[in-house]
Design a protein that fits this description.
Elements (H helix, E strand, L loop, with lengths): L1 H36 L4 H14 L16 H13 L14 H12 L5
Helix pairs in contact: 1-2, 1-3, 2-4
Length: 115
């Protein structure tokens, strides 16, 4: 039992050490994704709905299989944002300038009743 506790503690420590790099990568990806999500394209719709799902998954459910339709670089950016949001210190919309306004626009564009 002590070995499993020490293994778990080692994993937590390693994650804590890696976390700043994960946050930086996720923030960079989010800054790239947010403006794309506001465009009138199928990929923008997928990204917008993904971001809304992170923002409020109950109100804006998202089917993860939709990510398969993204270009690889956009898919990888979504994964980076998801990894960053694993243990959020901030809500996803608080990580970008004008996040409240951007997410309001995403709701107008891509919320299920708007689709």
């Amino acid at each position: 039992m002590n070995e499993s506790i020490s293994t778990a503690m080692a994993k937590i420590y390693a994650y804590d050490q890696e976390r700043p790099a994960l946050i930086a990568a996720g923030n960079q990806a989010l800054v790239r994704l947010a403006p794309i999500a506001l465009q009138p394209t199928d990929q923008a719709r997928t990204i917008g709905r993904f971001l809304l799902g992170l923002y409020n998954g109950e109100e804006f459910p998202f089917d993860l299989t939709e990510l398969r339709g993204l270009d690889l670089d956009l898919f990888q950016d979504c994964l980076s944002v998801l990894v960053m949001d694993y243990s959020p210190e901030l809500e996803v919309h608080e990580r970008v300038p004008n996040g409240d306004a951007i997410w309001q626009r995403l709701i107008e564009l891509w919320a299920p009743e708007a689709a």
